[in-house]
Design brief:
Mean pLDDT: 87
Shape: globular
Number of strands: 8
CATH class of the largest domain: Alpha Beta
Order of helices and strands: HEEHHEHHEHHHHHEHHEHEEHHHHHHH
Oligomer: single chain
CATH superfamily of the largest domain: SGNH hydrolase
Structural class: alpha/beta
Number of helices: 20
Radius of gyration: 25 Å
Length: 459
């Protein structure tokens, strides 16, 4: 029950930090120019092991070889961002004025605060507040800590017990979730359009203030990713095949998707920014593919939502920070072959080994940014050998049997060694031939061998 409560509430409230660590500055290779980061707990690297893991600002700074000043603060809303900009000291203003890139991660906590108020009001109306609290104690702009203190969540007579008490009560909870989503998304005589009318004007004002400080920097604003994407097999094993909690999470996921689709669309209408679509990378489901219970998206691979017990967390884990870094770097566009922190983090994670997964779309973005792709190296481990040939043969068998490809776009390109548009036995043969020749002292590259084979076939 404790796991369910934690998961459900985090889902309703969004990814917001309960702890507020100080902003940090991350020094890169150069003293001038570089990157300045503003935002919330995602940008601050909340949840990472500071001794062994790297937030995306550090990865970006290493890749670009530049200084990074990170002024992100866990829990910040768009209003806090405006206050932050108004309170910058002389050195911070100079950092902004000298920067080449300004990166902003904001908006998730605004959504969480809005939802918290709605849930608190609902709990007060239904008599579900903890002893000693009344409707008069509800703050005007509550956060998740207020909700956890004030609402009886899992105790006797609490919210979850109430929701399970009858079909009517369950429908009331569903109606609450849908009402929150509608008021966030829709702006008309019935719904208040909180994203359009409250969040986006703050972002627009922040962008204008940043532009006044620096007329030339590129301003990149991140979309908010969808955290309610959980492996269907995990849900079934944790909560049962027919669990009502899985049904509730499906409702939350659908409404969160609609909310964050709206946030992304509205953000794209803001002038003078470039949108880095972290939302799309975390989901790793193309926009034209239907998301449903069987295909919910893959954010669970880039967060610790499926960690054990109290370790569950919707913030990006190390894989998530790598995905955000790659997304931003691709948007920046100054790409080169990397042998630095970006690549080291990727290889340390061993994303294709020992059952550790990494979403295919995020992998494709990483490989474009890392720029160290080898034709024939299908598993991206830097070596062309028998394991790559095995992957090619497995793929050939699946395609021959009428099944869909399981390779990402870049993996498919690496597997199609002779560039004939088909992954088949000849590609596996090329890989095995190269592997055997290298074992016998061959010092040429794989592409040299492919060119020789092509030349011989034309002779």
């Amino acid at each position: 029950m404790k796991r369910v409560i934690s998961l459900l509430l985090s889902a309703v409230m969004g990814a917001s930090a309960l702890v507020v660590p100080p902003a940090v500055a991350e020094d890169g290779a150069n003293a001038g120019g570089g990157v300045v980061i503003f935002g919330d707990s995602i940008a601050a690297g909340y949840g990472l092991d500071k001794e062994t893991e790297y937030n995306y600002g550090q990865i970006i700074g290493d890749y670009l070889g530049c200084n990074v000043e990170n002024y992100a603060h866990s829990g910040d809303t768009t209003k806090d961002l405006l206050a932050k900009l108004d309170s910058l000291d002389a050195d911070q203003k100079k950092a902004v004025a000298d920067s080449d890139y300004i990166i902003v991660s904001i908006g998730g906590n605004d959504l969480m605060h809005y939802a918290s108020k709605k849930v608190l009001d609902f709990a007060a109306k239904k008599g579900l507040l903890n002893k000693g609290f009344t409707e008069d104690n509800i703050p005007e702009d509550p956060d998740i800590s207020d909700l956890l203190v004030m609402v009886n969540l899992k105790g006797e007579g609490g919210l979850m017990e109430y929701a399970q008490g009858s079909i009517t009560a369950a429908m009331e909870l569903t109606s609450l979730i849908k009402n929150i989503a509608s008021n966030l998304r829709v702006s008309n005589s019935k719904y208040e359009g909180y994203i359009e009318n409250s969040i986006m004007p703050n972002i627009d004002t922040a962008v204008k203030e940043l532009r006044e400080m620096n007329p030339d920097a590129r301003i990149l604003v991140q979309t908010v990713y969808q955290p309610i994407q959980i492996d269907p097999e995990y849900l079934a094993s944790e909560y049962g095949e027919d669990s009502q909690y899985a049904d509730v999470l499906a409702i939350i996921r659908k409404n969160f998707k609609d909310i964050l689709d709206t946030f992304r669309d509205d953000l794209n209408e803001v002038d003078d920014i470039e949108v880095a679509d972290v939302y799309y990378q975390f989901t790793s489901v193309p926009d034209n593919e239907k998301q449903n219970d069987a295909n919910p998206g893959y954010a669970y691979l880039l967060t610790d939502i499926q960690a054990e017990g109290n370790e569950k967390d919707f913030h990006p884990n190390q894989k998530g920070h790598l995905a955000i870094a790659a997304t931003l770097l691709e948007k920046i566009g100054d790409l080169h072959a990397d042998n630095g922190l970006l690549t080291r983090v990727f290889l340390t994670m061993e994303p294709y080994k020992n059952g550790v997964k990494y979403p295919l779309l995020a992998t494709d973005t990483y490989k474009r940014v890392a720029g160290n792709i080898l034709n024939g190296d299908v598993d991206f481990n830097g070596v062309i050998d028998g394991s790559d040939a095995t992957m090619v043969l497995r793929e050939f068998g699946k395609l021959s049997g009428g099944f869909k490809t399981t390779l990402s776009g870049i993996q498919n390109d690496c597997a199609d060694t002779n560039s004939d548009g088909t992954v088949d036995g000849s590609d596996a043969t090329n890989i095995l031939r190269y592997f055997a020749m290298c074992s016998s002292g061959y010092e040429g590259s794989f592409d040299d061998l492919i060119a020789q084979i092509a030349s011989q076939s034309k002779a």
